[in-house]
């Protein structure tokens, strides 16, 4: 069976003072749900030390596809691992839009993450225009095919379905729409990877809050959540973890 996963993406938020929120999250008592927080790179080392006292994994928010070299401002997967990360987000829609990352770029980053021993949390999602034109499954299918390298399995990969229009907007899809995409992803993964595809956890992301978590976690093939804004406050994130534990 797939274990549940509650993952938080702090984006470009968090100074040293935010580590008290992480300490509270890491101290969260849960046996059913794995916890992951992806703080900004500046906090990674301190976050890893803080989380070590509890039960929360630490992840990067992006990595470069190369191991080292002349790439000013970038961070390699090996550097993330060296700083104490066990996971890294790849292909978040804000990276795809702000930095023009293509599926091929995301695929190369995923391969780099694996080579450094990290679990890649691969993000996929459609725009509002693509949803309205009925292209959601075609878009998600193409992103999956183009961004996920061969060799994915339940240990090295997590997939997060994040409709772009739901991120930070307070909007969420209908539950039937989440189910449609998650069931589609599961079928595509099993078709391509067999049992390994069945073991890859599928997270929903986009405006997950304590108030909507329970209904989202009841949807088929939702194994957890990737949470942005509501992961910044331990009380909100812990309420989401509680909803996942109870699902
Ligand atoms: C995200 O950025 O991955 C995200 C899901 O953000 P939010 O929860 O704030 O919509």
Structural account:
- The chain has 247 residues and is an alpha/beta fold.
- The protein has one domain: Aldolase class I (TIM Barrel, Alpha-Beta Barrel), CATH 3.20.20.
- It is built from 11 helices and 8 strands.
- An 8-stranded parallel β-barrel has the order 1-2-3-4-5-6-7-8, surrounded by 6 helices.
- Strand 3, helix 3 (77-82) and strand 4 (87-90) form a beta-alpha-beta unit.
- The radius of gyration is 17 Å and the shape is globular.
- The chain starts with a strand and ends with a helix.
- The model has no long low-confidence stretch (mean pLDDT 97).
List keywords for this structure.
single chain; 247 residues; alpha/beta; TIM Barrel; eight-stranded parallel beta barrel; 8 strands; binds phosphoenolpyruvate
Write a brief caption for the model.
By secondary structure, the protein is α/β, with parallel strands linked by helices. It has eleven helices and eight strands.
Q: Which CATH architecture would you pick? A: Alpha-Beta Barrel
Oligomer: single chain
Can you tell me the CATH superfamily? Aldolase class I
Number of helical segments with 4 or more residues:
11
Strand content: 15-25%
Helix-strand blueprint:
Blueprint: E1 4-9, H1 19-26, E2 33-38, H2 44-52, E3 57-60, H3 77-82, E4 87-90, H4 93-98, H5 103-115, E5 119-124, H6 128-132, H7 136-147, E6 157-161, H8 175-193, H9 195-199, E7 201-205, H10 210-217, E8 224-227, H11 234-246
Parallel strand pairs: 1-2, 1-8, 2-3, 3-4, 4-5, 5-6, 6-7, 7-8
Helix pairs in contact: 1-2, 1-11, 5-7, 7-8, 10-11
The protein binds phosphoenolpyruvate.
């Amino acid at each position: 069976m797939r274990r549940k996963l509650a993952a938080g993406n702090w984006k470009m938020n968090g100074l040293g003072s935010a580590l008290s929120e992480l300490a509270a999250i890491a101290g969260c008592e849960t046996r059913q749900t794995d916890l992951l927080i992806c703080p900004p790179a500046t906090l990674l080392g301190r976050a890893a030390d803080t989380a070590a006292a509890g039960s929360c994994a630490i992840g990067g928010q992006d990595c470069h596809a190369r191991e080292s070299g002349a790439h000013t401002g970038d961070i390699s997967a090996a550097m993330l691992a060296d700083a104490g990360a066990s996971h890294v987000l790849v292909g978040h829609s804000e990276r795809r839009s702000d930095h023009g990352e293509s599926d091929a770029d995301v695929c190369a980053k995923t391969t780099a993450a694996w080579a450094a021993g990290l679990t890649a949390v691969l993000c996929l999602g459609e725009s509002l225009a693509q949803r309205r034109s009925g292209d959601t499954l075609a878009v998600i299918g193409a992103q999956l095919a183009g961004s996920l390298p061969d060799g994915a399995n339940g240990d090295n990969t997590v997939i997060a379905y994040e409709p772009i229009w739901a991120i930070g907007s307070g909007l969420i899809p209908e539950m039937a729409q989440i189910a449609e995409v998650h069931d589609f992803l599961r079928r595509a993964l099993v078709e391509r990877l067999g049992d390994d595809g069945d073991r890859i956890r599928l997270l929903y992301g986009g405006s997950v809050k304590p108030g909507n978590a329970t209904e989202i976690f009841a949807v088929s093939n939702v194994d957890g959540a990737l949470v942005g804004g509501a992961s910044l406050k331990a009380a909100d994130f812990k309420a989401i973890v509680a909803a996942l534990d109870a699902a």
